[in-house]
Design goal:
The complex is a heterodimer.
Chain A (H helix, E strand, L loop, with lengths): L3 E2 L4 E5 L4 E3 L2 E2 L7 E7 L6 E7 L7 E2 L2 E6 L4 E6 L8 E9 L2 E4 L3 E6 L1
Parallel strand pairs in A: 2-12
Antiparallel strand pairs in A: 1-4, 3-9, 5-6, 5-10, 7-8, 8-9, 10-11, 10-12
Chain B lengths: L3 E4 L2 E4 L5 E7 L5 E8 L3 E10 L2 E4 L7 E2 L9 E3 L8 E8 L8 E2 L3 E5 L1
Classes of the chains: A mainly beta, B mainly beta.
């Protein structure tokens, strides 16, 4: 079965600093999509960023960007100028055919 | 307002007592799915549906049933709940496939005693 691995259970960052969350995945597919979702304490799941595997260019959404290394099957999320509102659980996910597979999540704490 | 709704939000029940968690979306989405979230395991997909009357197993379907008789509704049925099904459950929908942004419901916290 396809797996998504987030090796950092918890991370901390100082407000205004930059942090990178790691994600690796395995897939035998050539055409797939990758996602980062944010889950704040409210439990609501929110899409942060989406990457199409056949696109070489790394996706960017304001302060959020990814480093997509297709050969290494790595998909890390970089948060720049961290804000208190960025504190949340972050999940990496990959499509697997018609399914969606999530990692175990990384808790991000932001210190003021 | 575009949204996915789930009911109930919280449920405590006993082993073996059949229950249904409802899910409804008002965005005319074709793809709907159910996930369970457990500490240290992230979200795991239980079932998904590509359209009306089209459902398929996710990674953890044992002990669950679903149906998709109408496009907007996708109920999750636990015919004989057991304590290992105690979890946080999310319903989600997207435009057409798993490749699109998933819109999640608010979650249902289920406890099986």
């Amino acid at each position: 079965a396809q797996t998504v691995t987030q090796s950092q259970p918890e991370m901390s960052v100082q407000e205004a600093e930059t942090v990178t969350l790691s994600c690796t995945y395995d897939t035998s597919e050539s055409d797939y999509y990758l996602f980062w979702y944010k889950q704040p304490p409210s439990r609501q799941m929110i899409l942060v960023i989406r990457q199409e595997a056949y696109k070489q260019q790394n996706a960017t959404e304001n302060r959020f960007s990814v480093n997509f290394q297709k050969a290494a099957k790595s998909f890390s999320l970089k948060i720049s100028d961290s804000q208190l509102g960025d504190a949340a659980m972050y999940f990496c996910a990959s499509t697997a055919g018609n399914k969606l597979v999530f990692g175990a999540g990384t808790i991000l704490r932001v210190k003021s | 307002e575009a949204q996915v709704t789930q009911n109930p939000r919280y449920l405590i029940t006993v082993t073996g007592k059949k229950l249904t968690v409802t899910c409804s979306q008002n965005m005319n989405h074709e793809y709907m799915s159910w996930y369970r979230q457990d500490p240290g395991l992230g979200l795991r997909q239980i079932y998904y549906s590509m359209n009306v009357e089209v459902t398929d197993k996710g990674d953890v379907p044992e002990g669950y049933k679903v149906s998709r008789k109408e496009k907007r509704n996708f109920p999750l049925i636990l015919e004989s709940p057991s304590p290992n099904q105690t979890s946080l459950y999310f319903c989600a929908s997207s435009l057409s496939t798993s490749r699109n942004e998933q819109f999640f419901g608010p979650g249902t916290r289920l406890t099986v005693l």
